Amino acid sequence: MSETVNPTLPIIRTVAVDKSFGSVEALRSVSLEIEQGKFFTLVGPSGCGKTTLLRVMAGFEQPTRGQVFIDGKSMEGVPANKRPTNMVFQSYAVFPHMNVGENIAYGLRSKKTPADRIATLVAEALEMVGLAGYQNRPSHALSGGQRQRVALARALVLKPKVLLLDEPLSALDKKLREQMQSELRNLQRNVGITFVLVTHDQEEALTMSDQIAVIFGGEIAQVASPEILYRRPNSREVADFVGVMNFLNVSVLSEHGTRRRVEVEGLGIVEIEEDQAPRGLVGDIVAGVRPEQFTILFEDRASADRCCSGTVTEIQYFGDMTYYAAKLEGCDKTVTISMRNTAGRRTLGPGDKADIGWRSESVLILS
Amino acid sequence: MASSFRRSINPEAVSGLALISPTFLYALVLLAAPIAAVILLSFWTQDYLELHRTFTLANYVKAWTEPVYQALMIRSVKISLLVTAFTVLIGFPIAYYIAFIVPPRRKPIWLFLITIPFWTSYLVRIFLWKVILGYNGVINGSLIGIGLIEEPLKFILYNQGAVVLTLCHAWLPFAILPIYVALDKIDRSLLEAAEDLGDSPFRRFIRITLPLAMPGIMAATIIVFIPTIGDYVTPRLVGGPNGLMIANMIEVQFKKANNAPLGAALALSAMFIVTVISLIFLWANRKYLRANQ
Ligand SMILES: Nc1ncnc2c1ncn2[C@@H]1O[C@H](COP(=O)(O)OP(=O)(O)O)[C@@H](O)[C@H]1O
Ligand SMILES: [Mg+2]
Predict the structure, then answer these.
(1) Residue B277, min C-alpha distance to chain A (Å)
(2) Cα(B232)–Cα(B254) distance, integer angstroms
(3) pTM of the predicted structure, to 2 decimals
(4) Which residue of chain A has the CA closest to B201?
């Protein structure tokens, strides 16, 4: 199936998809294009409609309005069992009355694949997910991580054009989750199938994806690569959701074309270049600075071109990192500052005065 | 010795035994003791007023060889199997409807409605069927009323069909409930996964829904089959002479015929047959589940 993919078309295209459940509008005018062969992630707070969008793509929900195209074909009226997508369910949905091998062979049997071919494909799929030789394991004797691998293998063995994954890692403990994140990423690169992953965990989205769509309240807020999303969020909401952002009051002093001269509370006057503000900025604006863009200056003052002072009010020690809360001098704002605990670097304690360095290109203007 | 024995009983086991002992005694007195008595009785001989306590197999020979007992036994098994088949076949779609189609907040109401027949006594319900099916009953009255027939139909009451119908009505809720529980427990994402992997709704039903509902279907089968074979009220009231079952004969032997040993042998034979058939059900279920893998 995957050989016939047309590389010039987006593999999935949704056009102004609305989905309502009674009076609840789960999706509002969602238009997305997902490129073939990419690891695409839908991220947003719980209840924002991620699962609904995935289920609309899979064919388990019909859009109230709008259309879904997969590999250029309209999916209107195409039931889930006829779509070139497969899904890894949040609960994994491993069939309890079948052993591992039968679970993985399920879709192949459905397609009437010859038995000897099934045996080979099942063995290959198990090998791919690191469960070689597990064919006869009863499904109740599997751990959470193994269930998830079975669910993955069961979907991938059918070589779908798109693999849909609904929060596949949220039920795993931290260590296993991190391991699975990189495994999933590698698996996607190896098989070359487009993955569409749903998660509420922005960190997971950043580490795994080629492209991320942030959804709030059923609407797409931003679609971007992880780096752009983190460095250039297009709204205050996105900036707040992805990573940590310090928000400071700001007033515009003057505008020359695409450049702005602004006064930021606690930091002073800053020149803002075109790419430090999203296009078409309207409404109340605010300045944003990421915690790692601030530096507590000990002896090395070279890295910062601007400096202000503050008082440490709180510290959070993470081993590799220390997070400081510092009240800026001359205003009432407390900012979060993250510092890497490199060799020989001191840490400050609450009440200590600190010189805080920053650069003007680290300041974003958002609305 | 004594001390090692005392040590081997841990306090938990003691308190467990203490907890179940009243129930256990109750069961022993009211279940095991009568069965033991019946077993003993079946090997003795009744000679008018005297009970000969010498061991004999004559009662069993009679129970298994005399045509009248054979016929009654076969008929009882047949009626029970029919009732079981009908209740499970009718109960399944009803249970399926409640489990999958009725919205969750209405399910309690539906389950409540299903239990309504239990509000009236079993006897009253059987009499109701007599009223419905009888010579001057509701069905005949209506059919004559709308002019479809001139004479009341006689074949609808006092036969095996009436027994099957009445028993089905009485036992249907017992079939619906366990099947409903099994169906309702099925994780919906399993059904979606099956569809996602390419199954049509029908294939999905055969490969996922049915095997996962099997414990409920099995429970329904056993719950209906075992008690119906021993029913004697329904055949007495709506069965007529051709609708009598083995339990009616057991009653006759214990009372009118004054041959309790033969009655006991018939009862134990029926118990044996029920056990064998139930084991066949369980075996078939296991075989089905294994074949389904
Ligand atoms: N089958 C449904 N019936 C009614 N409301 C639903 C249904 N599925 C989802 N919703 C509602 O749609 C919204 C989005 O849900 P969902 O897509 O599951 O969110 P997410 O996966 O992002 O947490 C929620 O408000 C949820 O309550
Ligand atoms: Mg969800």
Answers:
(1) 25
(2) 13
(3) 0.85
(4) A81
DSSP output for A116-171: HHHHHHHHHHHHHTT-TT-TT-BGGG--HHHHHHHHHHHHHTT--SEEEEESTTTT
Q: Provide the phi-psi class of B149: left if phi over 0, else alpha when psi is between -120 and 50, else beta.
A: beta
- The Cβ of residue A130 has, within 10 Å, a number of other Cβ atoms equal to 14
Complex ipTM above 0.90? no
Tell me the CATH number at A115: 3.40.50.300
Cβ neighbours of residue B203 under 8 Å, at least 6 residues apart?
A110, B194
Rounded-to-integer distance, Cα B139 and Cα B150, Å = 13
Over the stretch B193-222, which tens digit does the pLDDT of each residue have? 999 999 999 999 999 999 999 999 999 999
User: Residue A260: its pLDDT value, please?
Assistant: 86
Q: Is the CB of A269 under 6 A from ligand 1?
A: no
- Domain-embedded: residue A2: no
Identify all chain B residues contacting A85, using CB atoms and an 8 Å cutoff. 196
Assign domain B60-291 to its CATH architecture. Answer: Orthogonal Bundle (1.10)
The residue among B65, B84, B78 whose CA lies nearest residue B266 is: B65
CA distance A257 to A271: 13
Nearest protein CA to atom 8 of ligand 1, as residue = A52
Please indicate whether, in this complex, the C-beta atoms of B203 and A154 are within 8 angstroms of each other.
Answer: no
Mean pLDDT value across residues A210-220: 96
What CATH code is carried by the domain that includes residue A330?
A: 2.40.50.100
> Over the stretch B236-270, which tens digit does the pLDDT of each residue have?
999 888 889 999 999 999 998 889 999 999 999 99
Tell me the shortest Cα–Cα distance from A107 to chain B, in angstroms.
Answer: 5
The finding on whether A26 has its CB within 6 A of some atom of ligand 1 is yes
Residue of B nearest to A82 (CA): B198
pLDDT at B9: 66
Q: What is the pLDDT of residues B148-190, one digit of tens each?
A: 888 888 888 888 999 999 999 999 999 999 999 999 999 999 9
User: A43: CA distance to ligand 2 center in Å?
Assistant: 10
State whether A201 and A333 are in the same domain. no
